[in-house]
Design goal:
CATH class of one domain: Alpha Beta
Strand order of the largest sheet: 2-1-15
Distance between the termini: 11 Å
Oligomer: single chain
Order of helices and strands: EHHHEEEHEEEHEEEHEHEEHEHE
CATH architecture of one domain: 5-stranded Propeller
Radius of gyration: 17 Å
Number of strands: 15
């Protein structure tokens, strides 16, 4: 029996432990204009959708770590992927690039400490980074999106944090797209599904990064234009080539199945489409292992 409590230095090995947080009253009360939401969330419907996603994760055998800290002003806090990164040495506490999300970081790190995950490193100074910009290509390579949410200082500090683990960071410049208010993370464009397979919207990928992936033998399942806006690239791997995505992305799901993947779906009209956070955003993997 595996006695490890943490270690998620990849994005595709079987998901063993994962943090989740239920939609809070702050999410239901959020002003869509202030939080850049696509409509005002209906809290009871959001809670039902979240419960269904959590049930899916449990049925897959993942142990749930509930993040239930009282965060009355932080509407985005159920998107637990962003405030921290979990590596083989413990938690790297990030520093949110979205001003309204500042303050989510340490409460989540403390939840993880209670679950047996020590703090390994804390970003400091002017460094800003969100988990949606941090994509493990493999156990030793972290792609770090460079955009409105994650800056150069964070790239340098993440490099320092991962050096003792013989892991490296590579910078991936992100496009302006819809501007600073919009939520465009690196993982808005690409998710890893297996060591040699990713799902992506190539039109917004930097050419050098796309070429680098190809040189490494990583194939892309292409998200169609119509499903980029419904978070088609936001896919959570439960195990190699077994994944979950929003039920709206029918063509993306079909293309994943054609590539040999098993695909599960969930409803996310309230928890995903309105708040701009898909299956990866709603989960923070803590332990992945074969």
């Amino acid at each position: 029996m595996n006695s490890r409590k943490y270690g998620a230095q990849n994005m595709v090995e079987p998901l063993r432990r994962v943090v989740v947080r239920a939609p809070s009253p702050a999410y239901g009360d959020a002003d869509p204009a202030a939080w850049n939401y696509h409509g005002k969330p209906e809290i009871e419907a959001a809670r039902r959708e979240h419960a269904e996603l959590v049930s899916l994760l449990e049925n897959e055998g993942a142990e749930l770590i509930w993040h239930d800290a009282d965060l009355p002003e932080l509407a985005d806090a159920m998107y637990v992927h962003d405030p921290v990164l979990v590596c083989d040495a413990g938690t790297i506490v990030l520093s949110m690039g979205k001003d309204l999300r500042r303050g989510e970081e340490m409460p989540l790190a403390q939840t993880l400490e209670r679950a047996g995950v020590p703090i390994h490193y804390r970003l400091h100074g002017d460094a800003r980074a969100e988990g949606g910009d941090l994509l493990w290509i493999d156990g030793q390579t972290l792609a770090v999106g460079q955009g409105f949410r994650t800056n150069r200082a964070a790239l340098e500090q993440l490099t320092e944090a991962l050096a003792p683990l013989d892991a490296r960071c590579i910078a991936v410049p992100l496009p302006v797209y819809a501007g600073a208010a919009a939520c465009l993370h690196l993982m808005s464009l690409i998710s890893m599904i297996d060591d040699d397979l990713a799902v992506a919207y190539p039109a917004l990928l930097p050419v050098p990064f796309r070429q680098w992936l190809a040189e490494r033998g990583i194939e892309l399942v292409t998200v169609p234009e119509a499903e980029f806006s419904t978070q088609g690239p936001n896919v959570l791997a439960l195990a190699p080539r077994r994944c979950v995505l929003l039920e709206d992305n029918v063509e993306t799901a079909a293309r994943l199945r054609a590539a040999g993947c098993e695909v599960l779906t969930y409803r996310g009209a309230e928890i995903s489409h309105k708040g701009e956070g898909g299956a990866t955003c709603l989960t923070r993997p803590v332990l992945r292992s074969r």
